[in-house]
Specification:
Helix 9 crosses helix 16. This protein is 30% helix and 21% strand. It has 3 domains: 30 residues, no CATH class; 305 residues, 3-Layer(aba) Sandwich (Aminopeptidase); 204 residues, 3-Layer(bba) Sandwich (Glucose Oxidase, domain 1). The radius of gyration is 27 Å and the shape is globular. It is of the alpha/beta class.
């Protein structure tokens, strides 16, 4: 039997070829010359028919050994650390230092053998800014040198100013302004209450033991994931939080209109000379935008200094302070860039699929951003160096992304997802528009782009410089037995735990929120939360070379395994936030009718 001139044998051959050819190529296969062979089609994730995952993973233990040898015995990670943290220093998004770090990481990734090393813009960030110097010295009733820094995007003082200090409590709303009108001209405002300092603090250094890891492994039925930085997702929660945050813009404008000289705020966390200086200290969440530019200098003081001034004023002792804030704005519309590089895939069917490691390169200004998240950035760089040094030929493409704008709202990773993977529908009520995009309610729909089906997994590090103890799967049950097999040969390095818990407040959210596998590693905390995160102590000295080497080895192995297995990693179901329904109000049959 023949069908339109094709023999049954030819038809069978064409059907077989169509499994590997794009549809247009299959339709015209009979017209190709005998020597022309079309490239096999790239496979992608199919939600309707997901790939069957094997019960047993095929692990290349020889490659495990080679990665361990290269990463533990020939590491360059501390070279990257001193270059990034000692030479370049802090990396505030939009700043000259951030631009320098972007260029340096791109060049280093290219030099180690990665392909397509480049800077990729995610859009207009806002104002470039840098702190040159800040000093705060008490002149009366005693002389003292205080630990102080400008808050991010603070304007400068007109040189050294010497002025009396006046204590002003927090304002609940604009009605509280009235009491202070006409009283602030020429004064330095000590704004808010003095923090209470525990005279018997716990030790700063902490490590997770077996009991703690068992706790992390266990899934809390009450839904409390605060330890994993997952917070309430109800629309009103973040709207109320940022209503208070955005009110600080009105506060700074009021102080400026009253001709105050400057604002002093306390560090919301840390003592013993440890001082945080981040978005919680800034006078509003959008002070980096030209149309939200702060009109008055503001300085964060170490808690001990703030407390001393506060107590003196409470006892009616006049305080005079010398203040010098030297800052510089370097542009109104600085572009935000991510550093991207890759090891190209080699399998004809899988090479367009992506396995990704990412960490944010930007930091706050108080220290040099060594643990938040410079450590994650150099771990990812070292993982790529290990793989290129071993001349691996991954079946899938392994890509690294070093984000900027994370500290202001995960801008870099959100921009990457929006440009390459999927668009997201967010709530547009006035209350929600006052909330940063990464915390805004997702109302849908989520619209995938072509590369969405080709994305296999994203691995993130953003909890300091401690060694890796396991990984969170973000409620992905299908991935648990896979990761458990991957870490089995790594138990001697301390990698023991696969937890179903979600993790939040970093760049894996940008992928997970659109239904793509985004994972955060479980890290030993060391003194990340107690001493270094966002503080003046976030420096090279907080790093453990042994922990960083271990982390790079583990991440390199995860990237290699994900790139080499036959199947893409399994996903959670595709999210449809637009279909979610609120609980009906007539649940109770005897409830009064409204």
């Amino acid at each position: 039997m023949k069908i339109e001139g094709l023999s049954r044998t030819c038809l069978i051959l064409l059907i077989a070829l169509s499994r590997f050819l794009p549809s247009n190529a299959a339709a015209s296969a009979h017209s190709k010359k005998p020597h022309e062979i079309a490239a096999p089609a790239t496979r992608g994730y199919d939600y309707s028919h997901p790939e069957v995952q094997p019960a047993k993973e095929t692990l290349d233990l020889n490659m495990y050994a080679r990665i361990r040898d290269e990463g533990l015995d020939h590491s360059r990670i501390m070279d990257y650390a001193t270059a990034l943290f000692d030479d370049i220093g802090q990396r505030l998004t939009g700043s000259p230092n951030m631009a320098k770090a972007n260029a340096w990481t791109r060049d280093q990734l290219a030099a180690m053998g990665c392909a397509n090393a480049r800077l990729e813009s995610w859009g207009d960030f806002g104002m470039g800014w840098r702190q040159i110097a800040t000093s705060a010295n008490m002149a009366k009733p005693d002389t003292a040198v205080f630990i102080a820094q400008a808050t991010p995007w603070s304007p400068a003082t007109p040189g050294l100013i010497t002025a009396d200090v006046i204590a002003v409590p927090y304002f609940r709303d604009e009605k509280d302004f009235d009491k202070w009108k006409g009283k602030l001209a020429g004064k330095i405002v000590l704004f808010g209450r003095a923090p209470k300092i525990n005279p018997s603090p716990k030790p700063l250094l902490e490590s997770y033991d077996g009991n703690k890891l068992q706790e992390i492994f266990s899934y809390p039925l009450d839904g409390d994931f605060k330890e994993q930085h997952v917070f309430p997702s109800t629309p009103d929660f973040w709207a109320n939080v940022f209503k208070q945050v955005n009110f600080k813009e009105q506060v700074s404008k009021f102080f400026a209109d009253q001709h105050a000289a400057a604002i002093l705020v306390s560090s919301y966390g840390g003592d013993g000379g440890i001082m945080k200086d981040d978005n919680n200290e800034a006078m509003g969440q959008r002070v980096y935008m030209p149309d939200h530019k702060q009109p008055i200098p503001s300085v964060v003081l170490a808690d001990e200094a703030f407390g001393r001034i506060s107590r003196l004023l409470e006892h009616d002792v006049p305080v005079t302070l010398g203040l010098n804030v030297q800052t510089e704005f370097t542009g109104d519309h600085e572009q935000g860039y991510n550093t991207i590089a890759e090891i190209p895939g080699t399998d004809p069917q899988l090479k367009d699929q992506i396995v990704m490691a990412g960490d944010h390169l930007d930091s706050w200004i108080a220290g040099t951003g060594a643990t938040d998240d410079g450590a994650g950035a150099i771990i990812a760089m070292e993982a790529m160096r290990i793989l290129t040094a071993l001349h691996v030929q991954p079946r899938r493409t392994i890509r690294v992304a070093l984000w900027s704008g994370e500290e202001q709202g995960e801008f870099g990773s959100l921009g990457y997802v929006d440009q390459h993977l999927a668009t997201v529908g967010y709530a547009t009520t006035p209350e929600q528009l006052a909330v940063p995009t990464f915390l805004r309610q997702i109302t849908g729909p989520i619209t995938p782009k072509p590369d969405y089906a080709l994305f296999s997994a994203y691995f993130n590090l953003d909890n300091g410089g401690g060694k890796l103890l396991g990984i969170y799967t973000n409620n992905n049950a299908a991935i648990v037995p896979i990761f458990q097999q991957w870490i089995a040969p790594l138990k001697d390095l301390g990698v023991t735990t696969v937890s179903m818990r979600p993790s939040g407040s970093s760049d894996q959210d940008s992928f997970d929120n659109v239904g793509l596998p985004g994972f955060q590693f479980i890290q030993d905390p060391r003194d990340y939360e107690t001493r270094s995160v966002h503080t003046n102590q976030d420096t090279y000295e907080r790093l453990s070379a042994d922990d960083l080497k271990q982390a790079a080895v583990v991440e390199a192995i995860f990237l290699y395994n994900a790139a080499m297995r036959d199947q893409m990693l399994p996903r959670n179901p595709f999210p449809h936030p637009e279909l979610e329904k609120k609980t009906e109000s007539n649940l109770m049959p005897d409830a009064a009718k409204k």
